[in-house]
């Protein structure tokens, strides 16, 4: 991991941009983190819109994590931001799937499994090994220790990561995106404590599919926080509840 820039934010949070191979990432650590008192870590998931576009929301979440005593980190998703575009054939398949998704949504028709698979599985299959490699590098830093949590979307990435990564101790997952059949089956293998946020009136979300996914999780401790409002209307109270969940499981 190569640190490419560093700054201290107004609340004492240390922000570092880094490269892991060719994958950009961001790391935030609270002023209290040190080799003698390493901070637990929260991995911040986000939609594939690019770290620059997502930075204001990510830094707000990281500052909240730091105020609670946690380090926070994220990496750029494949094909997003300044990362290279996928091969032409893969891009063409994704464009066809997005066009099919738009037609189905506009017509009020069910979104077929083949569309969801084409849109989501390539991202998950590329991203999860990169997030695990980032976790290797982050936990090698003296000021960061376990346990480790995951927070955010893409929910399919969080599910796969929770199913295969034994260092993950708890996760807050944001419902509201289509999940491939194979990932729903993987959800049955997820056993860590979960807190799932669901926007009840999310215009782009199949509410019943989100409820079925929650039911599929194999965790003995899982909670569903359903709030009124659309996709971007998550309340501050919902964030506070998620923070309490991490305080309970990562400290």
Question: What are the SSEs and their pairings?
Answer:
Layout: E1 2-8, E2 14-20, E3 23-29, E4 39-44, H1 51-67, E5 71-75, H2 88-107, H3 113-139, E6 144-152, H4 155-164, E7 168-174, H5 181-187, E8 194-199, H6 207-216, E9 222-227, H7 236-250
Parallel strand pairs: 4-5, 4-6, 6-7, 7-8, 8-9
Antiparallel strand pairs: 1-2, 2-3, 3-5
Helix pairs in contact: 2-3, 3-4, 4-5
Please describe what this structure looks like.
The structure is a single chain. The protein has about 250 residues and is α/β, with parallel strands linked by helices. It has a single domain, classed as Rossmann fold (3-Layer(aba) Sandwich), CATH 3.40.50. It is about 40% helix and about 25% strand. The protein is built from seven helices and nine strands, in the order ββββαβααβαβαβαβα. The protein has helices at about 50-65, 90-105, 115-140, 155-165, 180-185, 205-215, 235-250; strands at about 1-10, 15-20, 25-30, 40-45, 70-75, 145-150, 170-175, 195-200, 220-225. The chain has a nine-stranded mixed β-sheet, sandwiched between helices. The longest helix is centred in the middle third of the chain and has 27 residues, at about 115-140. The chain is globular, with a radius of gyration of 18 Å. It starts with a strand and ends with a helix.
């Amino acid at each position: 991991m190569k640190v490419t820039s560093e700054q201290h934010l107004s609340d004492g949070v240390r922000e570092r941009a880094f490269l892991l191979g060719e994958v950009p990432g961001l790391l935030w650590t609270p002023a209290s983190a040190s080799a003698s008192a390493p901070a637990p870590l929260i991995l911040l998931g986000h939609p594939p819109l690019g770290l620059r576009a997502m930075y204001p929301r990510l830094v707000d979440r990281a500052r909240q994590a730091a105020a609670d005593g946690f380090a926070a980190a994220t990496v750029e998703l494949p094909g997003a931001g300044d990362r290279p575009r996928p091969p032409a054939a893969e891009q063409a398949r994704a464009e066809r799937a997005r066009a099919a998704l738009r037609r189905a949504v506009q017509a009020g028709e069910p979104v077929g499994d083949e569309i969801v698979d084409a849109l989501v599985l390539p991202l998950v299959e590329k991203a999860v090994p990169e997030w695990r490699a980032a976790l290797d590098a982050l936990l090698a830093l003296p000021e960061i220790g376990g346990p480790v949590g995951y927070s955010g979307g893409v929910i399919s990435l969080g599910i796969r990561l929770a199913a295969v990564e034994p260092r993950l101790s708890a996760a807050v997952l944001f419902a509201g995106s289509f999940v491939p059949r194979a990932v729903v089956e993987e959800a049955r293998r997820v056993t860590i404590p979960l807190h799932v946020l669901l926007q009840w009136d999310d215009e782009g979300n199949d509410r019943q599919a989100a409820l079925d996914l929650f039911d599929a999780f194999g965790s003995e401790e899982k909670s569903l926080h359903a709030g009124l409002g659309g996709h971007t209307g998550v309340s501050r109270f919902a964030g506070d509840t998620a923070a309490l969940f991490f305080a309970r499981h990562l400290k």
